[in-house]
Amino acid sequence: MSMEAVFFDMDGLLVDSERVWLEIETGVMARLGAAWTPEHQAHLVGGSMERTIDYMLAVSGAEVPPGTVRSWMVDGMVARLSAGVELMPGAVELLDAVRAEGVPAGLVTSSLGEIAGAVLKVVGRERFDVIVTADDVTHTKPDPEPYLTAARLLGVEPVRCVVLEDSPSGVAAATAAGCAVVAVPSILPIEPAPGRLVVSSLTTVTVADLRALLSA
């Protein structure tokens, strides 16, 4: 089976932003008068902004409008990411290798477009043929809609696509969409499964490995 597209997750897969999220979430929770721990973050990894805000308000018990918390989160993330973000080992190299072979590449993230935009200023928007953020879908990961949307925009079949993810919710979304998956677990463990390759780093993954997943 030919490989028609490769889709990259953003947070924790393309860029080392999970620690940035922890930093911003901790600051926002302090404003809400409560503590925030890595365990709280692990509960939300790969989820939507709305889910994060609802959880933070529930944990803190603060009577602050969700829109205010959203602004604190978005403004904090954009400012922090605009100041610089660290790329995950092997991610951009694999992305460039995919494009060098003429295979379309997409960025598919549960982050808001404003936050993705800050990252893309560092990574390079021109590296991607399609970009799907939380602003572009009704349901974010683990729903398959983000990956189905990316495939539709490129005019490709999901079953001929490979997804690179770091979270269980992202893997669930890609699998439900019918895509093969390369998982690089960051905060939460991910188990091997048919049509899924689990690795510790993208530095060990080649374009040939991605193609092999579709012919397995």
Automatic annotation (TrEMBL):
Domain of life of the source: Bacteria
Gene3D superfamilies, per the entry: HAD superfamily/HAD-like, Putative phosphatase, domain 2
Transmembrane region(s): none
Pfam families listed in its UniProt record: HAD_2
InterPro entries: HAD-like_sf, HAD-like_SPP, HAD-SF_hydro_IA, HAD_2, HAD_sf, PGP-like_dom2
Protein name: HAD family phosphatase
Biological source species: Nonomuraea bangladeshensis
